[in-house]
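Researcher: Quick sanity check before group meeting.
Model: Go ahead. Protein one:
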Amino acid sequence: MIRLILPTLLCWVLPVLNACSGSTALNAGTPPLLPEGSLMPEQGWESLIKGTDCLVYSLDPDLDFKYGNQNKMGIRTFQGWRVLKELRPTMATRYELAEALAKASRPLGGNPVDCFNPRHGIRSTINGKTYDFVICFQCNSYHVYVDSKLAATVPLSKQPRGLFNATVTDVSLVPGN
């Protein structure tokens, strides 16, 4: 009896679970679309989804060197923030991070917080341009740099913080350098 019920039950339950698990685009392996109402710059989104290269960073929020990629002390930095860890995400992880960041890029209301202590970063490249996302969940914003020039400051909810923390601690991801 269970052999007859189980396949029928799975035919009904699996599509529902799949729909509730997040983006169907992620499950299908196709690039997700920029979520409607997102404040993420469209070119930045394109770089995350279709870019030729992508790196994810764990950053030290206390050390702001502002010397570019290498400072005079030889410490690796990302837009002036010391790099603690650099990883090359899989395409599925890349889509997941991009979609989570875009969905969290919404007007927050209230007064903006006057701080910036980033702990995460993403670098992506497309059409010869490099896009850097310097992300601060503590202060609810991220900066977008295009070829090392600040292009936008975007409000950000704390919702994807756990995903970003899990990504930079995932030992199965390949180190970037």
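Researcher: Fine. The other one?
Model: Protein two, sequence then structure:
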Amino acid sequence: MHNTKPRAVLSLKKTSPQSEITQAPSTPQQSTATPKKRKIPAAFPCLQTHWPELFNLKHPTPLKIGILVPVIASLKQEDEPYTDTQIGKAIGWYCRRFEYLKALTNAPHRVGIDGNTFPISDQDRQNAMKQIKARLKEARADPKR
């Protein structure tokens, strides 16, 4: 009266090559996704909806230093469901992008959510250039990326 069926869960037996082949098509996202590609944070589309000119992925605008506080306050007034942490991660993700760093080195000024402009310090431009150079050096050293 032994059950001869292999257990579906917690089985210690190796799967046969045939079962691996049948499982592969069910997860195409895993096989085609690049391991280094980062997902867009959950709150970022909300930022793009409210401030499309500030959070443009193709043409980034350098943001005013300290923009997080007014962004959070504005989104709370609009009853958006995102936490302060989620909003902060979305802005941080945007500001660490390669395209944003390039914009920071070339743009004439930073912009706040109200449209006011603020100067970009020489130190900020130099730091952005250092980050760009470090990323390019890393990419050249690891061509698989």
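Researcher: One line on it for the slide.
Model: The first helix runs from residue 17 to 23.
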